[in-house]
Specification:
816 residues, alpha/beta, eight-stranded mixed beta sheet, seven-stranded mixed beta sheet, 42% helix
Length: 816
């Protein structure tokens, strides 16, 4: 004996009803079948809407009835042979007349009683079962249509329906089953024989009851999905089918929103140890999900379930402490008013108790609780109930969790790193479920995070939001594009650029694989008008996990937004020096924010482009070493100039070449003034532990003031050309002393300075080539022989590679 239940989508069209035949033919080989069917998809909701309209005196409910009538009659004409249509059309018409009459009574009274609501909502199953029965009659030798009102007997208490199992089982025992037995789901009868309904998931429950009554070999739930999933596939694109799980795990998942199967339908099967198979009517070859009693699996987590539209009710006060029956009164008052409690948590001090309910019951629950405890509230023993709405629940489910430490820690760590605040936590003593209440707007982000953490060990997604598409930005996008396939294959990182902006336009692509990096320039031209505020607002609205903000500009306006970005637990990687060289108090604030909100603020490329200078310095300090002195050539631009200027070509021509080749800032005066070097040594001083400001860094300029005071860049170049003799004099002085010119930054004894120096051939700075930078760290450990970091310190390619390295550091930290 098999019991098969077909949901609304499985019987929603002529084509789907026809697809039942091969499924049933195959199962019928093993013996008699009980086939429980739902109403055609959407019909029950239409009936409930019709009731609502009729209660309001709105006769537009008749339009709904007309639509229902047309849908069923059209299905009959397409599905049933002409010779058999008259009988079924007569019976359907009779049911429709009864439905119209009942709704007419509701319209007249402007009220629908509980009994009339149940009767009206039963018509969908009554009509669909009648149609399916008549269709199957012509394809099977013996088919019967069973009225569940005469079998499933219920008692009604305070409008709640309770199945009388023994009475119903005796009724079922009197049935004479045929080869195929069609039964409308969702419907039962009360003790007087009136139609009642079995509530949410009622057709599943009907099927489970008949499986129980007849000790079925298997209960099959057929719908339009491949089985129970590791998470809601509408929210998690990588959700996977769970091949097998226990009854208890299925109960936990179904309780928290896995609508493929409903909690009441599991219990009758579980009592008789009847396996449940969840299958897809439209892909019957797929194995689906099997629910059994004895299943054991090594997987720590079987699935992630979720619910939207949750509210928390918080009751607190000294009047709760040590008072017997307090919780009893609370839950009794909610129960008597048909308010379902989803989650409970209470402080060990007994000073507070918190319950989660569906948001639709929020106002009613608030009134009920305040009324129940009105005396305690009036005397100040309790505070009025506090309601927190717009929430959701995420639950980890798995029987093996109780044998493994660290599951909760892994869950909370993943949520915390991405700025998701937990409002309440609940875990049962069985340890099969850890549930957290969070903001509803964070629900999708949280589910994807947890699914990635527990089910997608091989693939982690990194989402990049990038502002700045100049030379460095273009190079960074080129490097990301080149490395995407490698990172996915070798390091299991799915790096996507979700948003991109320049000073005029911005584009977002969160729904697909991210921005196509082969055509981003054309797309950006067609983008929306850019502003940093609208960019950040959109980034916040998308609310993706593992998000990184990339500021590839020199903008002070963007740097001012860093605190608000870090507060969203979004990490920042940038070559922009503005934030790191702002006031020391602002710099410390950014450091505090990254710690508080579990984000990172990385600016390795602020000093020496792609060289690991700041990271090396941080490692020294963190490991307990003390910095005594830093001596460095920190400007790749200036080193490029001095290495290429030999008097055969004017100094101004070398500067122009540096700008054209991307070695200098857009305005070369920033480099030649020494300001850029001052910023860099300031950053190194702060990372060494010194509370310094820009004014604390002394500096000597080697460029005449007339050049630096020019009104614009072209004026600067013009004046620079006039000062060629000044630079030839510096060059001659270096040659006479057999030295090379270097612009050197020094930090020693808490003081920082920058200056032009002439270095001898025995100095580490003498043999620097091209745009190379070099940093010497003198510390407790490296006192006689300094730790040296040396390499290319300017150029779009190396700067981009440094930003890319920061992205990888953030990714690695988020994984730990």
């Amino acid at each position: 004996m098999y019991v098969l239940k077909f949901g609304g989508t499985s019987v929603g069209t002529v084509a789907s009803i026809r697809s039942l035949k091969p499924i049933l033919k195959k199962r019928a080989k093993d013996g008699p079948l009980i086939v429980v069917v739902s109403a055609m998809a959407g019909i029950t909701n239409q009936l409930l809407e019709a009731i609502s309209l009729a209660e309001k005196g709105n006769d537009e409910y008749q339009l709904i009835l007309k639509s229902i009538e047309e849908q069923h009659i059209q299905t009959i004409r397409e599905l049933i042979d002409e010779n058999g249509q008259s009988d079924i059309l007569e019976k359907i018409t009779k049911l429709l007349d009864e439905l119209k009459s009942t709704l007419g009574g509701v319209l007249s009274l402007r009220e629908a009683t509980t009994n009339s609501k149940k009767l009206i909502s039963s018509f969908g199953e009554r009509m669909s079962s009648l149609i399916i029965y008549n269709y199957l009659k012509s394809h099977f030798s013996a088919v019967s249509l069973i009225d569940p009102v005469k079998i499933i007997t219920c008692r009604i208490e305070q409008d709640q329906t309770y199945v009388q199992m023994e009475v119903s089982r005796k009724n079922a025992g009197k049935l004479k089953l045929t080869q195929l037995n069609v039964i409308p789901g969702f419907i039962a009868g009360d003790e007087s024989g009136k139609v009642v309904t079995l509530g949410r998931g009622g057709s599943d429950y009907s099927a489970a009851l008949f499986a129980n009554f007849f000790d079925a070999k298997m209960l099959e739930i057929w719908s339009d999905v491949d089985g129970l999933m590791t998470a809601d596939p509408r929210l998690v694109s990588n959700a996977k089918v769970i091949e097998e799980l226990s009854y208890e795990e299925a109960l936990e998942l179904s309780h928290f929103g896995a609508k493929v199967i409903y909690p009441p339908s599991i219990q009758p099967a579980m009592v008789k140890k009847i396996p449940i198979q969840i299958l897809n009517t439209f892909s019957p070859e797929k194995p689906g999900t099997r629910v059994t009693r004895g299943f054991r699996d090594q997987s720590l987590i079987r699935g992630i379930s979720s619910m939207q539209d949750i509210s928390l009710l918080n009751l607190k006060g000294s009047g709760m402490i040590g008072i017997p029956k307090f919780s009893y009164r609370l839950f009794q008052s909610l129960s008597e008013n048909h308010i379902n409690v989803i989650l409970i948590t209470q402080a060990s001090s007994e000073h507070t108790i918190c319950v989660g309910i569906e948001s639709r019951d929020q106002k009613k629950a608030e009134k009920v609780i305040n009324r129940t405890f009105s005396n305690e509230i009036e005397t100040g023993q309790l505070e009025p109930v506090k309601v927190d709405g717009d929430l959701g629940i995420v639950a980890l489910v798995g029987s093996s969790m109780k044998n493994q430490v660290g599951i909760s820690g892994q869950m909370f760590s993943a949520l915390g790193r991405n700025g998701i605040s937990i409002k309440a936590i609940a875990q049962g003593s069985s340890e099969r479920n850890i549930s957290v209440v969070i903001e509803k707007e964070d629900l999708t982000k949280a589910i994807n995070l947890l699914h990635e953490s527990f089910f997608e060990h091989e693939i982690r997604r990194i989402n990049l939001f990038m502002v700045g598409a100049g030379n460095v930005g273009k190079e960074l996008l080129k490097q990301v594009k080149k490395q995407q396939a490698y990172l996915l294959k070798e390091h299991h990182l799915d790096v996507r650029v979700i948003a991109l902006a320049n000073s005029k336009k911005m584009i977002f692509e969160e729904e697909t694989e991210g921005i196509n990096l082969s055509e981003w320039e054309d797309k950006l031209k067609e983008g929306a008008t850019y502003s940093i505020d609208s960019f950040i607002d959109k980034m916040d609205q998308i609310n993706l996990r593992n998000s990184i903000f990339l500021d590839v500009t020199a903008s002070g306006e963007i740097a001012e937004k860093y605190p608000s970005i870090l507060k969203k637990s979004i990490s920042i990687a940038t070559p922009n020096k503005v934030a790191a060289t702002a006031s020391h108090s602002e710099f410390l604030n950014l450091k505090q924010l990254e710690r508080k909100f579990k984000a990172q603020f990385l600016f390795e490329t602020n000093v020496c482009a792609g060289l690991p200078v700041i990271s090396t310095l941080r490692d020294l300090v963190k490991s307990g070493d003390r910095i005594h002195k830093i001596q460095a050539v920190l400007s790749g631009t200036l080193n490029f100039l001095f290495n290429n200027y030999d008097g055969t070509e004017k100094f101004v021509a070398i500067v122009r070449r540096a700008k054209e080749e991307g070695y200098s800032e857009p305005d070369p005066r920033l480099d030649l003034s020494g300001e850029d070097v001052k910023r860099k040594i300031l950053i190194l001083a702060r990372e060494s532990g010194y509370a310094m400001e820009m004014d604390d860094v002394s500096g000597e300029s080697f460029v005449p003031e007339t050049c630096m005071n020019a009104k614009n860049i072209e004026g600067f170049f013009s004046e620079l050309g006039k000062q060629e003799s000044h630079f030839k004099e510096l060059l001659q002085k270096a040659k006479e002393s057999t030295c090379k010119i270097r612009y050197v930054a020094t930090l020693e004894n808490g003081k920082a300075k920058t200056e032009l120096q002439f270095v001898k051939s025995n100095h580490p700075f003498y043999n620097l080539e091209g745009s190379d930078n070099i940093v010497l760290f003198y510390t407790d450990r490296y006192s006689n022989q300094p730790l040296v970091v040396k390499g290319a310190g300017a150029g779009a390619e190396v700067t981009a590679s440094g930003i890319f390295a920061d992205i990888m550091r953030i990714s690695a930290a988020n994984q730990s």
